[in-house]
Amino acid sequence: MNKSFKALLLAAVSLSSVHIAQAQNFGDMVKDVAKKNNVNLDQYTGRSGSGGSINNLSTSEITNGLKEALKVGTQNSATKLGAVNGYFGDALVKILMPPEAQQVKDALSNIGMGDLVDKAVLSMNRAAEDAAPKAVPIFVDAITHMTIQDGLSILKGGNDAATQYLKAKTTAALTAAFRPVISASLAKVDATKYWSQVFTTYNKIPFVSKVNPDLTAYVTERALNGLFIIIAQEETKIRTNPAARVNSLLQKVFGAH
């Protein structure tokens, strides 16, 4: 503890008997003694005289910094995933056949039609890559509505606290908005054609249980899941790696935290 601050506390305690009669609390005693001794309490409390703050950052600076971090993270993620092989070339987010359709892949591979399955998988990932950049405005709109209290909670959270906040607040709306984009993208890259061929061929195999999952719903869910995974990675970099803080506001907020 700083010597001057320790002396300040001891002085406040020594005056307690006088102030107790006036029903003054300990905090008020410290403030009184600090004022008389020209000691700035802000350096010890992390609060400025103009209102709530952390490490000399105003709550609006903190919130704006977090919003900027999320905007940077979503933009970087969308750019990465929207590139050719953004999904298909990343094992962490690559969209594969759904678990319940694994039997389809195995059965068709066994009869020499594995290439048809491969084309379907590639088409699903191409659709997600095509749609990814179109999710950015949806994320940005959600980010702008983040409150100051949300910002303070996120700042104190884990390395993916902002991503988890965003996921909890926007998944339903994102799914509703993202699904038609995915649907159009699937049609654009002929994924629906390959998917239909895969399951039509599979369902003709004797003695198999017929399978026909909703392709659009599945790819939408997997595309959004992959997007959140990459956003979480971007957030972690911004929180832990100074080089990832691309502007002065991010440097100030996360450098002080």
List the helices and strands and how they pair.
Elements: H1 3-14, H2 16-20, H3 26-36, H4 42-45, E1 53-54, E2 57-58, H5 59-82, H6 102-110, H7 114-131, H8 136-144, H9 148-155, H10 161-188, H11 191-203, H12 215-240, H13 248-256
Antiparallel strand pairs: 1-2
Summary tags:
disordered N terminus, 68% helix, elongated, 257 residues, 2 domains
Brief sketch in words of this structure:
This protein has 257 residues and is mainly α.
What does this structure look like?
The protein has 257 residues and is mostly helical. It has 2 domains: 3-45; 54-256, no CATH class. The protein is 68% helix and 2% strand. It has helices spanning 3-14, 16-20, 26-36, 42-45, 59-82, 102-110, 114-131, 136-144, 148-155, 161-188, 191-203, 215-240, 248-256; strands at 53-54, 57-58. A two-stranded antiparallel ribbon has the order 1-2. Strand 1 and strand 2 (57-58) form a beta hairpin. The radius of gyration is 28 Å and the shape is elongated. The two termini are 20 Å apart.
